[in-house]
Amino acid sequence: MSDPTPRSHASVLSRRTLLVSGAAGAAGLYGLRASGASGAVPTSLVAEAAGTVTFGSNASDPVPKKATAAVLAAFAKKTGTKVQINSVDHNTFQEQINTYLQGRPQDVFTWFAGYRMQFFAQKGLLTPIDDVWKSLAPNFSPAMRAASRGLDGHYYFVPIYNYPWAVFYRKSVFAKNGYTPPTTWDQFIALAKKMKSDGLTPIAFTDKDGWPAMGTFDILNMRINGYAFHVRLMAGKEAWDSAKVKAVFNQWRELLPHYSSGALGLTWEEGAQQLVKKEAGMYLLGSFVAQQATDPADHADLDFFPYPSINPKWGQDSLDAPIDGYLMSKHAKNVPQAKALLKFLGSAAAENIYLKTDPNDVGASNRASSAHYNALQKKAAKLIAGAKHIAQYMDRDTRPDFASTVMIPALQQFLNKPDDVNGLVSSIQKQKKAIFGT
Fold first, then answer.
1. Distances (CA, A) of 392 to 45, 80, 114, 234
2. Nearest CA to 410 among 431, 393, 391, 392?
3. What is the pLDDT, as a whole number, of residue 61?
4. Is 333:54 a contact under the CB 8 Å cutoff?
5. Which positions of the chain have pLDDT values less than 50?
6. Which residues have a Cβ under 8 Å from the Cβ of 316 and sit 6 or more positions away?
7. CB contact set of 5 (below 8 Å; sequence gap of 6+)
8. At the fourth CATH level, which superfamily is domain 165-320+399-436?
9. Number of neighbouring beta carbons within 10 Å of residue 300
10. What is each CA distance from 286 to 75, 172, 306, 385, in whole angstroms?
11. Paired strand residues for 402
12. Cα(290)–Cα(285) distance, integer angstroms
């Protein structure tokens, strides 16, 4: 997910896994690698903030880590509040979040909107922040506000940015070879075949991390069966062994000959490097893929197109555009300071600071400046704004235990044995019933 963003997308199950894990290795989440930050915020927050507020961060990759530090420094300078940052490897943070929240969590921590936030709110591990949202509400669209509420109607989440999933490519590669961005499935497959004949890997694809394959399932399901069916499937309200789900996997099989060799052993960063180095022609991923184009010329050469249409009934009306942001733990020790920090994190000023350092995402606030957006950001903002339906991503739209213990191994099983679709969906359905109870 842009994840976009205070995030790292590296290592096994790095960006998106949520495991109910034990205490082993959890010490890192509880502050053993903490550091301070200082900076500036609006005068109105000075009276609210004093002392120290602790901040748990999964931003372990260099770009989002630097951007997060810049935002926290800006908050700290004028308020005089010391921000004690505990930055943890993204994979470790994801795997140990359940133990973390039931132990000694920081006051405020990085996380995601949607079901993933609601799951912990329902477990009573988060602090409602309705009072914070009294001032934040005008900054956000109805959709952003809805994504920040729990199932009980209370606010728990403060968004800072989101980012679209699309098919990325290098403009120079397309221009050199006379390629045209496809809008239909037939055009997509024809382009992949042409790229292969030209000596390219048509589609960079990796799944060592576990989560990237989810993006392909999401978009194929929305393109074939529509958004409404997709969200019902994620919520456990549709059968995984239905003809509709089988159609998704059967469509997916057409892509497999065009994927990177050894995909299950590759991280998302390695897939991004295939694109950057012009070894691969296309790559379905979130816009955070641009973090890997560290040379300005390479970054400027990146472009993307929305995933092609498959079923004319739905066209290209839906996409994954996950929202990242912040939560306040139930066990926060410095509640006033934590709420003051959350107010700032939800401000246009905070988003502007963040995106200056990590210019690969789109600000969540409708008051954030887009004046300094690069070409990719402008196009991403337009794609998100024009989408009829926006999904959060499979592991954010379904139960975390179902996503991590069922779907990650199931999708990897499919990639290894794509010819047994009936057996695959039957197994998923049995496990789904055990977890959802229906």
1. 31, 36, 7, 11
2. 431
3. 82
4. yes
5. 1-49
6. 183, 223, 306, 307, 308, 309
7. 59, 64, 160, 161, 163, 288, 324, 358, 361
8. Periplasmic binding protein-like II (3.40.190.10)
9. 14
10. 28, 20, 11, 16
11. none
12. 10
DSSP 133-194: HHHHGGGS-HHHHHHTB-TTS-B-EEEEEE--EEEEEEHHHHHHHT----SBHHHHHHHHHH
Give the sheet arrangement for strand 82-87, strand by strand.
34-37, 82-87, 52-57, 108-112, 323-328, 157-162, 362-363
Distance between CA atoms of 106 and 55, rounded to whole angstroms?
5
* Residue 227 one-letter amino acid: Y
Residues 6+ apart with CB under 8 A from 217: 248, 252, 394, 407, 411
> Six-digit token pair at 30?
């509880």
Question: Which among 161, 164, 165, 162 has a CA at the least distance from the CA of 71?
Answer: 161
- pTM of the complete model: 0.81
The full DSSP string for 309-353 is BSSTTTTT-EEE--EEEEEEBTT-S-HHHHHHHHHHHTSHHHHHH
Confidence at residue 50, expressed as pLDDT on a 0 to 100 scale:
59
Q: Which residue has the tokens 């397309």?
A: 174
Per-residue CA distances from 107 to 25, 46, 93, 133, 238 (Å): 20, 18, 15, 17, 38
Burial of 317 (0-12, 13-18, 19+ CB in 10 A): middle
How far apart, in whole angstroms, are the C-alpha atoms of residue 236 and residue 233? 5
List the domain boundaries for the chain. 26-162+324-384, 165-320+399-436
pLDDT attached to residue 60: 85
List b or e across 6-44, with b for residues whose CB sees 16 or more CB atoms inside 10 angstroms: bbbbbbebbbbbbbebeeeebebbbbeeeeebbbebeee
Q: Which two tokens stand for residue 390?
A: 């926006």
Q: Of 200, 235, 197, 203, nearest to 216 (Cα)?
A: 203
Does domain 26-162+324-384 correspond to CATH entry 1.20.910.10?
A: no
Predicted local distance difference test score (pLDDT) of residue 63: 86
